[in-house]
Amino acid sequence: MKQLVLIALLFTSFQLVAQDKPGNQRFWESLKKHCGKAYEGEIMTPSENDPFTGKRLVMHVVDCGEDFIHIPFFVGDDKSRTWILTMENGLIKLKHDHKHEDGSEDKVTQYGGTASNTGMAGIQFFPADQETTDLIPYAANNVWWITVDETSFTYNLRRIGSDRFFSVKFDLTKEVESPGPAWGW
User: Fold this and answer.
1) Which domains does the chain have, with CATH numbers?
2) For 22, which of 90, 118, 133, 139 could close a Cys bridge (C-beta 3.0–4.6 Å)?
């Protein structure tokens, strides 16, 4: 009986220690568990004019370091997009890296934002930063957010003050084969 009580106390104290970590640290650790794995997704906001509708969508958590995670996002045969997450000054930053098939940078690249706080373990928000505002003035009101839990990863975009909303959900329970490297990587 004493052993059972001791095990319960150790488990409870481990849970309390895990909860003592900021939300973004727990988010980061959850995401890094998927490093090297690829998953298929589906558009949660389908529309007739969305160029992603009807195409195979795959994310590949391809590269993870202590302070970075690279996630190419493939849309059919288009391998131009990579989500770059970095941990800077205790906060997570999201940037969108866009490259052409020859590996050269697209003129619209490196837009995104930094979380304004540590957030929660299952969700991180990224309001558009000044670099984004300077590069794409109409995107100044963009807010991106990513959710991650045991079964799914979602990437979302809302342009505040407009009808623009995009969401794609990936099934983390079914690993798929990666389409290969993103362009320029």
Assistant:
1) 22-176 (2.40.128)
2) 118
